[in-house]
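Schema walk-through. Below, the input block comes first and the output block second. Nothing else is stored per chain. Lengths vary across the set, and this one has 285 residues.
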Amino acid sequence: MIRNAMSIDVEDYYMVSAFADRIKFEDWPKYESRIEKNVYKILEMLDEYRVKVTFFILGWVGEQHPKLVKDIHSAGHEIASHGYNHTLVYNQTQEEFRKDIRKTKNILEDITGTSVVGYRATSFSIIDKTLWALDILIDEGFLYDSSIFPVHHDLYGNPNFNRFPEIIKNGVGEILEIPLSTIRLFRKNIPIAGGGYLRFFPLRFIEWGIRSLNRNEAQPAIIYFHPWEIDPEQPRLNGSKLAKLRHYTNISKTFLKLNRLLKTFQFGPVKEVFAYKITMPISFQ
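--- output ---
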């Protein structure tokens, strides 16, 4: 059986892009933090199934909750970078992006004492016009990136990108790009990777999509979700109808769906599942 990759983008409910036009980074400390409660619930679930996964963690979360990061690492999960404060890559200059990922890498490595080699951009915001970010990630010592979603979307997406992992090289080095999972239907890439798609689509469709990748294309799937997606009791925020639809739809069903996926499929951390594609050495401490 093919082992798939599971990942968690560690951000709180008020940090998401859907409400970024209403909630400024400077105001984050004003909101009730629910990140620890939700992450520890996730850790208990993963421990029950004896599964190790990847946590893409915001640098700001690491600063505010260093013990949480230590506990994730001590439980045997991979720690990876989600940037510092959930800023979209295409809203940053190249120098701002470099400072952002360097700062976050240092924060997480100082907490865990191990190398951070994986990165995922805010809301998959490495798109066609920000592919320069991959060169900077190579410069800063990252071995893989999982930021490109080969779909059409109003906030992100690069539908012409390879659906499967691809090594990107420049004159300095290389990085493995691991796109979020899609299946090919009606000449289009249909997302099955998790997050809102896990909440919106019937579980049977998600399961069928993973099996299709595993059996028909001999490829592992990469699934993601957020801690706030297992928290139906989180405070409700003001935002547009579209933002509320994206954020709150079927939020009460996520935890049950995740349990079902963990019972049905084999999962592991991103850097282990895709290690066969990475030509540079990785420490699995």
